[in-house]
UniProtKB/TrEMBL annotation:
Domain of life: Bacteria
E.C. no: 3.1.3.-
GO MF annotation list: magnesium ion binding; phosphatase activity
Organism placement in taxonomy: Bacteria, Bacillati, Bacillota, Clostridia, Eubacteriales
Protein's UniProt name: Cof family hydrolase
InterPro entries to which the protein is assigned, alphabetical: Cof, HAD-like_sf, HAD-SF_hydro_IIB, HAD_sf
UniProt organism field: Clostridium putrefaciens
Length: 277
């Protein structure tokens, strides 16, 4: 068997537009797992959120969350890798967000800090209604004591997201973010940008987990649909873009599969793992 690990993004990739994993995809993942292939979730989401979906498909491997800033084993609760933004970076990011009148969301693996219950904060808050306690996200709405938040959570804030309905405003703010030294800036949708500390990416996360399992890059498949997936798509021997991905992502992939609403991930597993023997 050529491939020993397959890393898949979640939103726009593993999940369909209803934020569900199809039965066909679940079955293909189960069969790949039974063959000894490590199936890994690699997502921009917080660990708690990703862990809920991993439990649905009984994935036992560690989860790459926060775009690679936090990697944790599901069963042993072992933190394999963590790289925080740091309080000084957080202060700089908040100032830029305020300057552009964009709501910021600062993430730990299990909690979120924002100035208003909108966008990601609202989405996670709504999701909490149906989640078991150990997978819920702690939502914190902060008004004016951000310095205290950054001080208390300096060792746990791994990512910041800026989101707004005004795409052009987001683009202008992203340009300013890209001027800041010591951070990584990528987008998962056209109306957002996600910020981690320098050197953090999904590609680096896959590299760390590959070393953890002693797996070579040529034994890895990575699947994604957006800018924050590019680093892992380029790292893997087989980098796959979803059929619903922008053309800029498809052009840099080795293979383009079907869309997330047409079992694109399942079709990759079937073609390159289940039917490759």
């Amino acid at each position: 068997m050529k491939y020993k690990m397959i890393c898949t993004d979640m939103d726009g990739t593993l999940l369909n537009t209803n934020k569900e994993i199809s039965n066909k995809t679940k079955e293909s993942i189960k069969r790949a797992d039974e063959m000894g292939v490590h199936v890994v979730l690699s997502t921009g989401r917080m660990f708690n959120s990703a862990n809920y979906y991993a439990s649905m498909i009984d994935i036992k491997t560690p989860i790459i969350s926060a775009n690679g800033a936090f990697i944790r084993d599901r069963s042993k609760e072992e933190v394999i890798y963590k790289n925080v933004l740091g309080k000084e970076n957080c202060k700089i990011l908040l100032e830029i967000l305020k300057r552009h009148n964009i709501h910021g969301h600062f993430h730990t693996p299990s909690s979120l800090f924002s100035d208003k219950l909108v966008f990601s904060a609202k989405i996670y808050d709504d999701m909490n209604k149906d989640l078991p306690e150990d997978n819920k996200i702690e939502i914190n709405i902060i008004k004016d004591n951000w310095d205290e938040v950054f001080e208390k959570n300096e060792e746990s804030i791994v990512k910041c997201i800026g989101i707004d309905e005004d795409v052009e405003k987001v683009k202008r703010a992203k340009i300013d973010m890209l001027k800041v030294k010591g951070i990584e800036v990528v987008s998962s949708y056209e109306n957002n940008f996600e910020i981690m500390t320098n050197g953090v990416s999904k590609g680096r996360g896959v590299e760390i987990l590959a070393a953890y399992y002693n797996i070579k890059p040529e034994e890895i498949i990575c699947i994604g649909d957006n800018e924050n997936d590019l680093s892992m798509i380029k790292f893997a021997a087989l980098g796959v873009a979803m059929g619903n991905a922008p053309s800029s992502i498809k052009e840099q992939a080795d293979y383009v599969t079907d869309t997330n609403d047409n079992d694109g991930v399942a079709k990759v597993i079937e073609k390159f793992i289940l039917n490759s023997l």
